[in-house]
Amino acid sequence: MLQTIFEILSEYRTEYISGLITTLKVSFISLIASLALGTMLAIFCISPFRILVIIGRCYVEFIRNTPLLIQVFFFFFGLPSLGIQIGAFTAGTLGLTVYTAAFISEAIRAGIHSISKGQMEAARASGLTYIQAMRYVILPQAFRIVIPPLGNQFINLVKNSSILGVIAGMDLMYHADIVASNTLNVFDTYILVGFFYLTITVPLSILVNWLERRLKHA
Amino acid sequence: MDFAGAYSWPNLRYLLEGFLVTLEVAALAILLSFVIAIIVAIIRYTKIPVLSQLLFVWVEMIRNLPLLLIIFFVYFALRDVGIKLGVFSAAVVGLTIFESAMISEVVRSGLMSVDKGQIEAARASGLTYGQALRYIILPQALRRMIPPIVSQFISLLKDTSLAIIIALPELMHNGQVIYNTNYSYVIPILLLIALLYFVVNFSLSLIARRLEHSR
């Protein structure tokens, strides 16, 4: 078995590597985009404006309680049905971003809540505006607390990006499909796929655990 | 967008059939993975040699793999080595493998959150280790774990949609069959499916919140 795995790896390494690169690319773009969207939503949720709070809460609750596959399908099948053409890569990235932003928003909100209310009051009392207090006092501290849960979200993002395989998005899962149809050896082909995912997610998990322990003692 | 056409009676009935399959798969997988998770967590908590190290490697490996890959593997790859499962069993097995690993971590951290002194006190008052675990530690740990476990159940229910890759006739799959017949049905059908998932999951999360506050 080990021998066939190595044979598959040496023969199809370009397939695997290009799949791996797409997986990383999708995960990374979605991470940056969902960080931006998630932060904005978190600020909405804790803002003093009722309408923003309602928008933020509705978004988070609706997205968190529906499958990622729906969001991806909405972009991949839904938009073209309205006449808006969109590729699998873009649809996958958008779906992953919309989904992950809801979870990131919750993580950031929890981080902001963990900073004591007194700090905001003190910052306001010393003459900062609400936005300045957020920007210079609350958010920098919150981000430190939020780093481990954000790391976990990134791991989830890498795993969830496999959903591109369902819409032919050229990621690891998709390329594995091509390899398997050539080798006719599904078992060993997908053992290798698992191995490739683990090379990304295991180091990330170790890093997140280490950060968690460090920040707990800090 | 053709809402009236999409929501015709035969279509709705077909979606409902899919939804029942989704709920069946989810319920079975929740039950199985909860039982397995408790066993795994107790083995790791009591540090049974060799077994607990093996389970550590297993849990970390499974947690770091995409569920989609696991479901695919259980259905297609196991066929290569002579284990032929139907789509329904493959979906349940795949989900159980993944979620039992996830839930075992929740249970384990729940067990560890109960003060070690309690086990010592229970042992000192004459209970065996097994009794102390069964009557003192586990009930307390389980109560603390309710919110994270419910949120894991919500994930599981959402994740059943991934069984679309092995063509299990669940909600997402049946929806796709419907809108493949007519492109103007895509958005109405996806909206309805999202709503169905939302109603079930949101109610679950409200119950979890209620339980959390009632303590």
From TrEMBL, chain A:
<keyword id="KW-0472">Membrane</keyword>
<feature type="transmembrane region" description="Helical">
    <location>
        <begin position="190"/>
        <end position="211"/>
    </location>
</feature>
<keyword id="KW-1133">Transmembrane helix</keyword>
<keyword id="KW-0029">Amino-acid transport</keyword>
<feature type="transmembrane region" description="Helical">
    <location>
        <begin position="68"/>
        <end position="89"/>
    </location>
</feature>
<dbReference type="Pfam" id="PF00528">
    <property type="entry name" value="BPD_transp_1"/>
</dbReference>
<dbReference type="InterPro" id="IPR043429">
    <property type="entry name" value="ArtM/GltK/GlnP/TcyL/YhdX-like"/>
</dbReference>
<feature type="transmembrane region" description="Helical">
    <location>
        <begin position="28"/>
        <end position="56"/>
    </location>
</feature>
<keyword id="KW-1003">Cell membrane</keyword>
<dbReference type="GO" id="GO:0043190">
    <property type="term" value="C:ATP-binding cassette (ABC) transporter complex"/>
</dbReference>
<keyword id="KW-0813">Transport</keyword>
<dbReference type="InterPro" id="IPR035906">
    <property type="entry name" value="MetI-like_sf"/>
</dbReference>
<dbReference type="InterPro" id="IPR000515">
    <property type="entry name" value="MetI-like"/>
</dbReference>
<keyword id="KW-0812">Transmembrane</keyword>
<comment type="similarity">
    <text>Belongs to the binding-protein-dependent transport system permease family.</text>
</comment>
<protein>
    <submittedName>
        <fullName>Amino acid ABC transporter membrane protein 1, PAAT family</fullName>
    </submittedName>
</protein>
<feature type="domain" description="ABC transmembrane type-1">
    <location>
        <begin position="20"/>
        <end position="208"/>
    </location>
</feature>
<dbReference type="GO" id="GO:0006865">
    <property type="term" value="P:amino acid transport"/>
</dbReference>
<dbReference type="GO" id="GO:0022857">
    <property type="term" value="F:transmembrane transporter activity"/>
</dbReference>
<dbReference type="InterPro" id="IPR010065">
    <property type="entry name" value="AA_ABC_transptr_permease_3TM"/>
</dbReference>
TrEMBL record, chain B:
<keyword id="KW-0812">Transmembrane</keyword>
<feature type="transmembrane region" description="Helical">
    <location>
        <begin position="153"/>
        <end position="173"/>
    </location>
</feature>
<keyword id="KW-1133">Transmembrane helix</keyword>
<dbReference type="GO" id="GO:0006865">
    <property type="term" value="P:amino acid transport"/>
</dbReference>
<dbReference type="InterPro" id="IPR000515">
    <property type="entry name" value="MetI-like"/>
</dbReference>
<feature type="transmembrane region" description="Helical">
    <location>
        <begin position="20"/>
        <end position="43"/>
    </location>
</feature>
<feature type="transmembrane region" description="Helical">
    <location>
        <begin position="185"/>
        <end position="208"/>
    </location>
</feature>
<dbReference type="GO" id="GO:0022857">
    <property type="term" value="F:transmembrane transporter activity"/>
</dbReference>
<comment type="similarity">
    <text>Belongs to the binding-protein-dependent transport system permease family.</text>
</comment>
<protein>
    <submittedName>
        <fullName>Amino acid ABC transporter membrane protein 2, PAAT family</fullName>
    </submittedName>
</protein>
<dbReference type="Pfam" id="PF00528">
    <property type="entry name" value="BPD_transp_1"/>
</dbReference>
<feature type="domain" description="ABC transmembrane type-1">
    <location>
        <begin position="19"/>
        <end position="208"/>
    </location>
</feature>
<feature type="transmembrane region" description="Helical">
    <location>
        <begin position="55"/>
        <end position="77"/>
    </location>
</feature>
<keyword id="KW-0029">Amino-acid transport</keyword>
<keyword id="KW-1003">Cell membrane</keyword>
<dbReference type="InterPro" id="IPR035906">
    <property type="entry name" value="MetI-like_sf"/>
</dbReference>
<keyword id="KW-0472">Membrane</keyword>
<feature type="transmembrane region" description="Helical">
    <location>
        <begin position="83"/>
        <end position="103"/>
    </location>
</feature>
<keyword id="KW-0813">Transport</keyword>
<dbReference type="InterPro" id="IPR010065">
    <property type="entry name" value="AA_ABC_transptr_permease_3TM"/>
</dbReference>
<dbReference type="InterPro" id="IPR043429">
    <property type="entry name" value="ArtM/GltK/GlnP/TcyL/YhdX-like"/>
</dbReference>
<dbReference type="GO" id="GO:0043190">
    <property type="term" value="C:ATP-binding cassette (ABC) transporter complex"/>
</dbReference>
